[in-house]
Automatic annotation (TrEMBL):
Keywords: ATP-binding, Cytoplasm, Kinase, Nucleotide-binding, Transferase. Gene3D superfamilies: P-loop containing nucleotide triphosphate hydrolases (3.40.50.300). The gene is cmk. Residues 3-203 form the Cytidylate kinase domain. InterPro entries: Cytidylate_kin, Cytidylate_kinase_dom, P-loop_NTPase. This is Cytidylate kinase.
Length: 211
């Protein structure tokens, strides 16, 4: 069984995916972490983030590993856990450039498709491109202001600056962020985190066929 949860930036995808996965007692997969990991390697190597060839050479020479722990996914680079370096304003600015490169997308897709189901996968194109065969698909939205207010509780930045950055990232990610035609779209704005998780669980068939 694969459940996909896609959506716009900071719509709650990873928090919701974690809660749904916990309820189903399966792992969850944060695909965005692989794009963030690729961005980190590019920045550390001083590469032009538009240079797909150089990025791929770096990724192949220094593999990244996604560890889908229930309490929060981790990313390993060789023997080093680099997860804490992946969520910052600097990383948010660079990641959409890297994620627009077809070669990097193919690299991430291959990593994800190699994982053994069952799991809950969250990102932008889990339901459309990576796991189109998934039997249960969801797409999370919320207004930029609400998302910025939520994020401001995690980062010491003001709401308008976060909101502007989220709107920009949504625009840069638009090509890969359309909801699947068979996804259930949930506006998380009026819902609590627990409310979103419950809404998704309520939509799941009692027994989801293997995908
Ligand atoms: N329904 C909700 N009600 C209140 N807060 C929420 C809700 N959903 C998510 N949050 C909070 O919003 C913030 C962003 O959530 P989260 O990091 O899960 O989003 P995301 O879509 O995975 O973000 P990103 O795209 O940047 O990786 C977190 O602080 C989370 O606790
Ligand atoms: N399936 C995906 C997932 C992510 N991206 C890109 O990575 C960035 C970070 O993702 P978060 O989920 O951590 O926000 C995101 O802004 C996209 O650029 C993607 O393209 N496809």
């Amino acid at each position: 069984m694969i459940v996909t949860i896609d959506g716009v930036a900071a719509s709650g995808k990873s928090s919701v995916a974690s809660g749904v996965a916990r309820a189903l007692q399966v792992p969850y997969i944060s695909s965005g972490l692989l794009y963030r990991g690729a961005t980190l390697l590019g920045l550390q190597a001083g590469l032009d983030l538009h240079d797909a060839r150089a990025l791929l050479v770096t990724l192949q020479a220094q593999p990244l590993r996604l560890e889908p722990l229930a309490e929060g996914n981790r990313v390993w680079h060789a023997e080093q856990d680099v997860t804490e370096q992946l969520h910052s304003t600097r990383m948010d600015r660079g990641v959409s450039v890297v994620a627009a490169l077809p070669e990097v997308r193919a690299w991430v897709d291959a990593q994800l498709r190699a994982l053994e189901a069952p799991f809950v996968a969250e990102g932008r194109d889990m339901g459309t491109n990576v796991f189109p065969q998934a039997p249960a698909k969801f797409y999370l939205t919320a207004s930029p202001r609400i998302r910025a207010e939520r994020r401001a509780r995690e980062r010491p930045e003001d709401v308008p600056a976060i909101e502007a950055a989220l709107i920009l990232r949504d625009q840069l990610d638009a090509a890969q962020s359309a909801p699947a035609t068979d996804a259930v779209v949930i506006d998380t704005g009026p819902l609590t985190l627990e409310g979103v998780i419950e809404a998704i669980l309520a939509h799941l068939p009692a027994r989801v066929p293997s995908a």
